[in-house]
Fold these 3 entries.
Entry 1:
Amino acid sequence: NFATDRLFAMSRSPRARTEDDAPPTDWLGELPPELHLRILEGVDDFSDCAAFSLASPRLGLLALRSGLARFKDPLFAVAMRLLLVERFVASLGSSIMDTTLSEDTLRRYAADRRASADHFPWLARVSPALCLSSELDGPGDNRIANWRLQRGDESGARLRVGLLRCGFAMFFEGERGAERLVRLVFRSGTVQYYEGER
C-alpha cells in the first residue's frame, strides 16, 4: 500500500539514536524532510516563518529551496529584519528601545514589484509607529493606488502609484513634497529608469 509505505518512510528517523547520544538541540532535525515541508506549509504568518528560519536555518533553507510561497515573498525578508533587530535589542538587555521597522526597509519593500497592499495590515501590526498605507483615488475602472509611508496618523512620502486597470506602476524616492520618479514598470515587465530631480 503506497500510503502505508509513505507514512512508514516519513516516520523513520534519519539515524537511530542511542543512549550515548546527547539530547538534540534541534528536535525538528529528527524528523524527515517530507514532514518538515508539511509543517512549514502550515506556517501562515511571516513572523512565524522568520522565527522558524532563525531557530533552524536548515528549515529556512529547505522552505526557500522548495519554493514555499511565504518564504519567497518579499515580506519574509522584512519579517527577518524585524526579528533580527528585536533579538539584537533583547541581547542588549533593553526593552526601552523601539523595534519599529526602518524607513529604508519599508521603502525597499514598496519598491519590490511583488509587494502587495494586502500585507499592509501585517506591517501596521508589527510596526504601528512606521508602516505603509494605501489610498485609492479615481472613478470606477480608472482607480489609482497611492502607497505612502505612514508615521502614526501622519501620511508621509509617496512611494508608489499604480494604475490598477492597466497594471502600470510608478516608483518614487525622496521626502514628502520632494518625491521624484525613479522607475516606471509596465504590465509587460518593461522597466524605464529616471535619474535627477523630479
Note: The longest strand covers residues 154-163.
Entry 2:
Amino acid sequence: LKPLFECSNFRNTMKVFSFLAAAGVFWSHLSSADDADLLAALPEDCDECDSRLSLLQLTVAQKTNSSDATEQVPMIAYPKKYCQHCGEMAFCHRASNPGCGGRASGGVASFNNHARAKGCRSNPTLTIPRSYMRDISALGHFGGGRMILRDMLVSGFNHQRRNGGTGPLWQCIHAPKHVSVRWLHLHTFCKAGKVDNLPNRKDLCAVMSNTMDADRIASYWLR
C-alpha cells in the first residue's frame, strides 16, 4: 500500500484546501454563514474577487444539487460591494435582482439591446438570468443550469420575434475570457447581422430557427 501522502486523491484534496486558504474562504464560514452575506462581503474590485465568487457559487450549487431534487438554480443576489455605476448594475435592475432592491425569485429577463446590430433591421435582444451569474461557467455549476440557459434562449428568441426579427436568428454568449459586462447575457439578432463582435469562433454562437432548438443548443453549450 502506498503512504497516504502519495495517493493522488490525498494530493488533490490538499490542493483544494490550499486554494481555499488562498482565496480567504474557510469551511466553517461556508457551513454556517449565509451565502448571500458571503457574496456581499467580497471586495469591490471584480478582478480580485472572481475566484472567491466562483468558489461560493460552486458551494451554493453543491448544496442545491444535494438537497433540491428539482435542480433549480438558486437566487444569488448581486453583491452590494460590486460596482454600482456600471453595466452589471444596469443588468441587476433589469433582472429585478435582490442585490439592487428587486424582488425576483428566479427566471430570466429579455430586453432591447441599446447597441444596434449591423445588417439587421430590428433591434437586437439581450437576455439575462435574474440570479447573478458572472458568466456561463458559473451557470454550468448548477444542476438546473441547462434549464435556465434553455429558458434564456427561448425568451430571447421570442423577444426578438416581437421586435420584428424573422427567419433564423443568431444566439450568442461571450466566452468567460471575453466578457465585458460581468453578468451572463445572451445576444439574439438576425442571421445576417453582427453585434459586439459576434458571431465569431472564440465565443458560443448558434443559429436558432425555432424554440424547439433551445434544448439542443443549451445542452451543447453546457456539455
Note: The first strand starts at residue 108 and ends at 112.
Entry 3:
Amino acid sequence: YNRDVHIVLTGLVEKTQYNYIYCFAQDDEANGLGSTPNKMVWNSGSVAGSKVAQVQIGIGSVTTLDDSPPSFTKLQIQDPTAVNIKIVVTFALNEAGTAYCRVARSDSGETAADMTINRIITASWSGVYNASDVTIAIDNLENVVPSLTNRDDEVAEIMQSTQYDVYCWARDNAVDTRGELRYNYMIQDYV
C-alpha cells in the first residue's frame, strides 16, 4: 500500500522505441476478505492515477537501450608495398563507435594473449566511425610524445621489409536514457 513498484518488461528488442505501454493493476481484495478486487479502469472515474489511459500518457514512449557491443563489418590492411613505412588499416563498424589498433613486430615475442585491451588503447591509434569507412595510418608503434607521458613508450617507426601483427578493438557510442555515454565494449576474445 502506497509504495513505488518497479515493472520489468521482458522480450523487448534493444534500440527500439515503444510508443504504447499500458499498465493495469488490481488489489487483492475489496472487503478485507479477498472476495472482490478493485481494478483500474480504462479512462473513467475521478482519480487520474487509477486510469489505464492516463498512466500510458504519463509513461509516454520508451526506447530500449543498446546493450550489444559493436562488431567490425570491414577490417582491411592496405597492401604494405603501397606505403612502405606505414600500416594502413581501414575499418567499418555495425554502429557508431571508435576502433583502436596497435601493431607489434612479428618477431617481438608478443602474442595475442599479451595484447590486452588496455595495451591496444595505449598505442593511441584510433578512428571514429559514424557511417563511412575510416582509415588509421600507423607510422609508429605508439602514437605518443614520450616527453608528455610518465611511462615507457615504444617509439619505433614502422620499418620497411618488417612483418607486423595488427590488433584492433572497438567500443560503441551507446547512450543511456539521459543521453549520457554508456559504452558497450568488444570482449577481449574478439581482439
Note: The radius of gyration is 27 Å.
